[in-house]
Amino acid sequence: MKYLLSERALLKVSGSDAETFLQSQLSNDITKLDRSRIQLNAYCQHQGKIIGLLWVIRKDEAFFISFPKDLLETIKSRFLMFVIMSDVVIEDVSSSYNQIGLIDEKQSNGYSINDRLSLKIANRTEKTNSKVDDNIEWTLACIKSFLPEIFMATREKFVPQMLNLDIDEIGVNFSKGCYPGQEVVARLHYLGSAKRRLFSFKSNQEMLIGDSLYCATSKTALARGDRYKGSGIVVSKVKYNSLFYCLATLDVDLINEEITLNNEHGPKLEKINDE
């Protein structure tokens, strides 16, 4: 199936220094980017918190970077801030191309995200047979594939390990050189396993991106009482049929406990086992 991803922005990064520039800014190894695949990258601030989660594509002699549209000005302005005395051109080309999500389809000129999902970038003049603005099934497929997103509501809320980006180095390369936040991300990696990870849940009641996950029996909740702010955050969500599905971070030692949204009286969340 094909889905028009109209809520995603697209930046084009070109110039003789484009690869070097992106290598210095993003968490993955841009030099190893395959032209047939999308590379997942965390764009971090100096404390290792993720500003944006970027899909990076190598196309022709340039790089194309896809991410949620509400972060466009944030990402673009930050890139421009670090382009100093370099041959790098950064352009917003969101209005020139359609981004088409593909589920279980082999498509020429498409870029693979994982075994099920891929993305095609097509000129706006090119005819597509996509489901216009119907992204429910696409978002559900992303959730089932554990493909997280960062939105304005969750900007600078997570380090890469919380979103499982360190697993198999899918979104972080620990051998590459420096980038903003690299020291913090590397230190957490070499200290051992992360205390908070990404899980999938479902509920029969509405949830919002940025909502807190609450566990009344956690040691922190019992110790802090009314000052307890939660043990995780909703990262992405979708309503499908009569249920709500989401990806959310959660303290790993609480995964078998009862989890509710926002407070102890909130809707219950049920962990989804691999389907």
Task: Compose a concise summary of this entry.
With 275 residues, this protein is of the alpha+beta class. It has 5 helices and 15 strands.
Question: Which tags fit this structure?
Answer:
5 helices, five-stranded antiparallel β-sheet, 16% helix, 275 residues, single chain, 33% strand, alpha+beta
Architecture overview:
- Strand 12 (232-240) and strand 13 (243-251) form a beta hairpin.
- The chain has two domains: 2-144, Alpha-Beta Plaits, CATH 3.30.70.1400; 157-271, Elongation Factor Tu (Ef-tu), domain 3 (Beta Barrel), CATH 2.40.30.
- The chain is built from five helices and 15 strands.
- The longest helix has 11 residues, at 72-82.
- It has helices at residues 18-25, 72-82, 136-144, 182-191, 219-224; strands at residues 2-4, 8-14, 39-44, 50-59, 62-68, 89-92, 97-103, 110-112, 117-123, 196-203, 212-214, 232-240, 243-251, 259-261, 268-271.
- A six-stranded antiparallel beta barrel has the order 10-13-12-11-14-15.
- By secondary structure, it is an alpha+beta fold.
CATH class of the largest domain, please? Answer: Alpha Beta
Using only C-alpha atoms, the radius of gyration works out to: 19 Å
The outline comes out as globular
Largest sheet: 6 strands, antiparallel, barrel
Let me know the CATH homologous superfamily of the largest domain: Aminomethyltransferase beta-barrel domains
- The total count of strands amounts to 15
SSE order, one letter for each helix or strand:
EEHEEEHEEEEHHEEHEEEE
> Based on helices, strands and strand pairing, what is the structural class?
alpha+beta
Sheet-strand content, in percent, reads 25-35%
Could you say what the CATH architecture of the largest domain is? 2-Layer Sandwich
Question: What is the topology, as strand order, of the major beta sheet?
Answer: 10-13-12-11-14-15
Give unreliable regions as ranges: none
SS field, number of helical segments: 5
Number of structural domains: 2
Q: What portion of residues is helical?
A: 10-25%
